[in-house]
Amino acid sequence: MLPEKLQIIGEGNVAYHLAKGFSLISEIQQINILSRHRRNKDLFLSISDKVNCHDLEEFDLETPVTFIVVSDDAIPEIAEYFRNYHYFILHTSGSTGTAIFKDLGYRNFGSFYPLQTFSLNKEVNWKEIPIFVNSNNDSNDQFIKELALQLSDITQVVSDDQRLNIHIGAVIVNNFVNHLFSLSESWLKKNDLDFNIMMPLIRETINKIESISPATAQTGPAMRDDKKIIQRHIDALSANPNLQNIYSMISKSITEQYF
User: Fold this and answer.
1) Which stretches of the chain score pLDDT less than 50?
2) Taken in order 156, 94, 64, 20, is the CA torsion positive or negative?
3) The whole model's pTM is what?
């Protein structure tokens, strides 16, 4: 049975989209946002009449489900603070183990990890976002999975180790790749070129790996071991040692994969 109310500790990107997603579920009538600073109070209140904002000290020990949606470093402190809570407590971290709750004596605990990048000013389609869950027993696994299914059509129970490996993969394909986009944008801007000229290439790169594996889709001078072109690019990047090192390191990695 779905809870009539839940509480979310945190007021960042994930907390905002989680509140927005759950606000659309008719069975959930109240969503309490708890934070120390309440910097985004107006933004959260604009989601729905179901959403209320409170100080962290107003934590309700009788709310059926609590999400800890803060940085990984802050999870232990929050979990320690509310260790007398006996209902479902979940974190949304990709890399923090659920043993953190077990060690503090929680009875019902787990993880609720949505595999997506979230920004406050960018809408998401929850139905297409994979949510990976796990808990301290099979019964709780089922409850958390049913909760996740209210948001997403793609849910799966995984172990802590599997979730960690998923998070590592996500950092590589999202955070690392986006950083490369940023470096490319800066490089092109420095040379009086518009990053938008890269958009068709970026779209094709993403579209291609939906039908063939990334290993098969790989192209470029490093994949061909074209040493002359690689060296020419490295020489051209001499004014930007950081980007030059990244270019060299990734080119070396690609070449070693195919030769």
Assistant:
1) none
2) negative
3) 0.93
